[in-house]
Amino acid sequence: MPPAARHEAFARLRQREHPVFFAERRVPLLRSGGGFYALVRHADVVEASRNAKVFSSEPAVTNPEPPGWVKHVFGESMVNMDDPRHARLRRIVSRAFSPKMLSGLQGDIERAATGIVDDVLAEGPRDFVSQVAARLPIHVICDMMGIPGDMRAKVHDHVDVSTAYTGVRPSLVRSMRMAGRNMAALLALQRLVIKLGRERADAPQGDLVSALVTANVDGERLTWRELGSFFALLLVAGNETARNTMAHGVKLLTDHPEQRELLVSDFDAHIGGAIEEMVRYVSPIMQFRRTVTQDYDLRGLHLKPGDKVVLFYGSANRDETVFPDAGRFDITRKPNPHVGFGGPGPHFCLGANLARQEIRTMFRELLTRLPGLRATGEPELLLSNFDNSVRSQGFSF
To answer: Distance between CA atoms of 340 and 280, rounded to whole angstroms?
Structure first.
């Protein structure tokens, strides 16, 4: 469904008195089917996000839900856990995203952004995604984790494959093939970082892998399986949010020249608002699912244990009762309580500030050194019901 048609459909759903139920067809080998209630209003998404005891992330937040054996092979991702397991993992890995740690990364992010623009100037403009947006987030994550340079090409390839399975199922055969490639790529990423983790456990270095596999002052560290799951999550979720926002962002600034002119006129004054508006307008991650654990009334709808709800962030970010003239791109929008990084609560995006830092640094470098930067043509979008990803975007400068 084209983005404009999708936004119109969500606008109609937001006018309904209660959340609407959507039936799903069952897919062999996948624990899907039965249907879900669509949470499309901002207030509903926020309420469900804050109330994690009722709206559980277990057994999985993706749709279709993976079969039960997957967690035994890959381990469980933090996004698919509730407290106290979720709280323990988040407590360990959150140290990597402290203000002190992010401040220490700034120099590396700036050097990476400079190198990316150097390459664009040398190569000429072809595709903004592959030349710019896809490069910075993975570079930063690999540097944080201490991934050696000779491993990074494999990391890039595995991430691209792992994000190709999007929940859209044009045919059973194609779905199973995509799911198989996705799982193989995720397993390869996990094996890569576990191998590195074993090396770092014997000879720690000043990187995140070393910190995560050696006992800290609280006596907590990640197991090998937890390390593998966290690395895969960081690469996929951490990469896609910043990448998608930058890719859509260059198109938004091209299509709204008055907003671009305002941003360039005082970058420091407006870049913060521009990033929040890009994230709101784009909603890089479209939705997550929750499973109801107990009887609960949501806006007059009685939910029962076992019911599924889907939190549609893209719809919540266009809710007219919260965002006046919601279809307008406005970098001065205040307030801007978007849920583009997830709703408030225990599962709010751990890497939100890192994504903001990457986007800010990259656009500063681009708009300073490529003042004529413009998107050309329409973006090629990934066919997905989950990831609002740009596969390619022409550009010039």
So the answer is: 5
Residue 133: alpha-carbon gap to chain centroid:
14
Position 95 scores a pLDDT of 80
Pairing mode, strands 36-39 and 55-56:
unpaired
Q: Are 207 and 198 in contact (CB under 8 A)?
A: no
Cα–Cα distance, 243 to 139 (Å, whole number): 12
Are 361 and 113 a contacting pair, CB within 8 Å?
Answer: yes
Residue 96 clears pLDDT 70, i.e. is over it: yes
Alpha carbon distance 316, 339 (integer Å)? 7
User: Does residue 84 have a cis peptide bond before it, meaning omega lies within 30 degrees of 0?
Assistant: yes
Cα torsion through 354, 356, 357, 361, rounded to 10: 140
Pairwise pLDDT comparison (207 vs 309), residue with the higher score: 309
Report the length, in residues, of the chain: 397
Nearest to 66 by CA among 314, 244, 241, 289: 289
**b/e sequence 371-397, b meaning 16+ C-beta within 10 Å:** eebbbeeebebbeebbbbbbbebbbee
Report which of 201, 287, 232 is spatially closest to residue 71, judged by C-alpha positions.
Answer: 232
Q: pLDDT tens-digit profile of 49-64?
A: 999 999 999 999 987 6
Expressed in angstroms, the distance from the first to the final Cα of the chain is 31
Closest CA to 24 of 276, 252, 309: 309
218-238 residue pLDDT tens: 677 888 989 998 988 888 777
Q: What are phi and psi of 285, to 5 degrees?
A: -105, 120
Q: State the Cα–Cα distance between residues 120 and 34, nearest whole angstrom.
A: 48
pTM (2 d.p.): 0.91
201: enclosing H helix or E strand: helix 172-202
> Which residue is it, tokens 């656009």?
363
